[in-house]
């Protein structure tokens, strides 16, 4: 029974209680002791096995060298807030539309392709149209790598800032080459030389200083040197990457963005990584499946096929997959459905397991009574900075004795976002919203992750309830 397991673990030097979760090594240790071989399988391993059971494999080009063809680089734009990531993505997107004939309005579908002329050749580049490294991180967290090259945007009037360094480290950790766009050089106070010096200190040395990183001075606002930036991307790709894929196989790739469209049902923008995706193909994307009913490109035009590195908006799925999940073309609808159903039931089980260990204010109270919890993590969001400060101030004055701690791990002004929920889930925190509402899929995600969000419009009420929870007196509210 459980208590003898706890005893056994104790004798192995592991102190756990019966309801505590233990890590993978502990499980394996316990198995050894009981003469079982315990193997902890990761979700990725599990999914690989699932695909294998259908004779499928994700992530490999089929065929041999001769089947591989050059594919465009896939680029993510990263950098500090307000340094011009969005503006640059817009400028690159719009500049390219000019070449297109009528119907020139580009739509935001999550990714787009542009053409650059390099050495007299037309070369295509794919941009992931979500600035910042959220998309990058989300995909990497799922073990999927979409990005070949990162453009690091640094405003020349502001220089290297904390998120510049963070982005730089993310790209380095992923082994992704960096092209630096020194932005806002139209501004009189721009100092592009200073940016070069600063980044050199972080090990990103400009070519002109003898390093191997290309730096391009640009202005997203005045659309200056955008062609040079595109050229630098191609040159960097040619110099350090072997970007090839087999277009002549069933398509595989990643979901970049997906949502439920009122008229069209689930809509997903996918990035083909290998093979060619065609209308009529049966696909599984995350836990969604279906036959590709239609595909649209970033201009809203219908396309019938998408080759490697091509983003395409896919219609015809049964469910909305998550960003960063994989898609794969399979033999027929039946197989697609079987895989999707297995994934869905597994996702549901994982979610339930997760939800059980998450914390609500009531759970916190209950575990306090058992003498377990010592720290309550909070994320505060308010309509104005004054209210957030007032809330934090009042919280710090709650007197609950030495054994409990309130820790505000993040605070901010504005709606409750998916990023807030992400952080709360990762750190077992509760989100306090003061005169704000959730935004986008935040509520849905909180539900999924078992994160509690509590809303208040009166400060003393918020304080009262949190204090009550800390003192173990919270009444459930309905
Ligand atoms: P992001 O937070 O990195 O996505 O930054 P944005 O693209 O939203 O840009 C932040 C601000 O800088 C906006 O007001 C832009 O209009 C401005 N901006 C962006 N690029 C340039 C530029 O090249 N020159 C000037 N003068 N302003 C720019």
Automatic annotation (TrEMBL):
Keywords per UniProt: Cytoplasm, GTP-binding, Initiation factor, Nucleotide-binding, Protein biosynthesis
Secretion signal, residue range per the UniProt entry:
none
UniProt-recorded name of the protein? Translation initiation factor IF-2
Cell compartments where the protein resides: Cytoplasm
Gene that produces this protein: infB
UniProt record similarity statement:
Belongs to the TRAFAC class translation factor GTPase superfamily. Classic translation factor GTPase family. IF-2 subfamily.
Q: Which residues form a coiled coil?
A: none
State the function annotated in the UniProt record. Answer: One of the essential components for the initiation of protein synthesis. Protects formylmethionyl-tRNA from spontaneous hydrolysis and promotes its binding to the 30S ribosomal subunits. Also involved in the hydrolysis of GTP during the formation of the 70S ribosomal complex.
- Residues binding GTP are 79-86, 129-133, 183-186
Question: Per the database record, which ranges form the Tr-type G domain?
Answer: 70-242
